[in-house]
Amino acid sequence: MTAQIDHALEEIRRFRPSPEFAAQAVADESLYRRAAEDRLGFWAEQARELIQWETPFTEVLDWTNPPFARWFGDGRLNVAANCLDRHVDAGYGDRVAIHWEGEPGDSRSITYAQLTDEVKRAANVLAGLGIGQGDRVAIYLPMIPEAVVAMLAVARLGAIHSVVFGGFSADSLASRIDDAEAKLVITADGGYRKGKVFPLKPVVDDALDRATGGSVQNVLVVQRGGNEVGWTEGRDQWWHDTVATASAEHTAEAFDAENPLFILYTSGTTGKPKGILHTSGGYLTQAAFTHKNVFDLHPETDVYWCTADVGWITGHSYVVYGPLANGATQVLYEGTPDSPHPGRWWEIVEKYRVSILYTAPTAIRSFMKLGRQIPHEFNLRSLRVLGSVGEPINPEAWIWYRHVIGGGSIPVVDTWWQTETGAIMISALPGVTDLKPGSAQVPVPGISVDILDDDGKPVGGEDGGLLVITEPWPSMLRGIWGDPERFKETYWEKFGDKYFAGDGARRDEDGDIWLLGRVDDVMNVSGHRLSTAEIESSLVAHPWTAEAAVVGAADETTGQAVVAFVILKASQADRVTDVAEASEELRRHVATQIGAIARPRQVFIVNELPKTRSGKIMRRLLRDLAEGRQVGDTTTLADTSVMTAITEQVR
Ligand code: WT7
After folding, report:
1. Residue with the nearest Cα to atom 8 of ligand 1?
2. Was 55 annotated as part of a binding site?
3. 576 backbone dihedrals φ, ψ, rounded to 5°
4. Is 101 part of a structural domain of the chain?
5. Between the N and C ends of the chain, which has fewer C-beta atoms within 10 Å?
């Protein structure tokens, strides 16, 4: 955090929008003015302009039962029809919705008319499997067009999807299926990653053996990897046997604006992931509004590419709902950035003439490491807007992104938001805002934030404090699935009616906001949220482990990295003779239990952990150690010699 503050204080560069860009920009100052004079009126106008309502709303916000908001409550719409049919009806059926690029090099371009047909077919199949309004469907797919089709087919029926990232383990998938009581799982045999097929259907089979709820009645399987899969007759069905032959006639029914659209699980401060619940009308409004204005979308000419997987919120709002609601043409890529060669992303930008690119700082930093000669082999001149999300982007990476990828003169927008906020909350608007590398800058029009101290008082001057959102917003989470108490406790208890985001922030003299990282026990690894408690409980579940402490340590590429300190059980001490092997085994264990993204960078086997007299582990000291710093103040430790002993063991 101090390193980031230092960066923030040193950073003085500013970039004015070019007059040419400003002249053609979608957004202008009037959005801020209008939102400031009548915030609810502003959102109502956006909702009417950007969304097609089957029944127009008359009520904008109902906040009589905080923190449970209702937006556009008496309006009715079909989210999928907003993303599909209305564009076809408006005459844009031949516009490409998705240029899909498979990792092995196969590709498909799908128009809005074709995508609409495919979603109608899938909706008919799902309805035939008994899926209707309010039912939960788990989606566990690679980045293939069927992932988008599956999400929209669920939405079309007024059902609720729960997309689980394909990198999560059978255990993680099972607990998400159980928590949501999913009736159907949509998966693939496998997908491509780093030149190999990774299995998905076998993981689903394993998850369904572990799931205790018994809620799943069917599994729908897309053929992609061609890998061998087991089959449960009566339960499992191939997508190509059912969807391909289904009728493409399907009339979209309208649902209430507050009809649940999806659940997406994210890590909190406890071991159990939270099922963040989003609903329809408000979510779609803010996703579409921000996608249009933050990326300066001109749907007739732009080719947009967001590199996020649909398993994360960025994929929900800025691969599926925002871009499709806006009728954009976009690229969808299945694989990793370096497969089969390190220039793959730039090759894709050149091939499809991508004009808007939205990605994460961790990716930018790994390209920086590889050097500018790799992107320079490709023609990137089609790019005109660059976006960043997931963690603070350090000014060096921002400048590199603008210069090496963007050619030196195009806007870079750093967008702050969360799974819970549903859509972008803080960002510059290209063509309007003077850009400042390293700062997420200002709330988007219609959003109100503040920075408070621990007692809820606004911080003065440029001091750091806690970021809060002071007014309800259209795409806000409506709750945690099945746990209203946890929803209130996590976000609303600290500051009453203000939403507590869990991030530290400061405002500079121009009023620009700098994000300073999480203030809770949540880590940010490659822009993904991981909970220290969840990884600790996974480590403790291993038969060798007596105790474990996990910290997020600064990492040059991934932002933070998971570093674990583990005490082995005395009874195992004889068996575990090779410390390196033991720590490798524990790393593997976490990857199998939670997923590869949670695999610790390092596991240190130690004899003791630093604890206060009341038995609380002092993670701050372990973080000092993991980051190679002088260990800080140890006076509150029950035994002050412990840190010396641990330091010796680790070094
Ligand atoms: C957390 C939310 C929103 C999609 C990706 C992550 C951090 C996100 C930024 C940014 C500084 C950022 C915050 C936030 N974060 N974007 N531009 N600058 N920090 O979604 O998994 O829900 O994580 O990511 O700490 O709370 P998520």
Report:
1. 390
2. no
3. -95, 95
4. no
5. C
Ligand 1 centroid distance, CA of 617 (Å): 26
227: phi > 0 → left, psi -120 to 50 → alpha, else beta; which?
A: beta
Q: Residue 32's closest CA among 537, 488, 441, 482?
A: 441
| pLDDT 10s digits, 352-385 | 999 999 999 999 999 999 999 999 999 999 999 9
Give one word for 531, left, alpha or beta, with left for phi > 0 and alpha for psi -120 to 50.
Answer: beta
644 backbone dihedrals φ, ψ, rounded to 5°: -65, -45
| Domain containing residue 595 | 526-650
Distance 390 CA to ligand 1 centre (A): 4
Distances in Å between the Cα of 395 and the Cα atoms of 89, 367, 388, 557 are 45, 15, 12, 14
* Residue 210 assigned as binding residue: no
Classify residue 476 as exposed, middle or buried by CB count within 10 Å of its CB (0-12, 13-18, 19+): buried
The CATH number assigned to the domain holding 575 equals 3.30.300.30
Pick the atom of ligand 1 nearest to 517's CA.
25
Please report whether residue 613 resides in a domain: yes
| DSSP letter string, 394-444 | PHHHHHHIIIIITTTSS-EEEEB--TTT-S--B---TTTSPB-TT--BSBP
The terminus-to-terminus CA distance of the chain in angstroms comes to: 24
**Which residue has the least CA distance to atom 20 on ligand 1?**
418
pLDDT tens-digit profile of 12-58?
789 999 999 999 999 999 999 999 999 999 999 999 999 999 999 99
Number of domains in the chain: 1
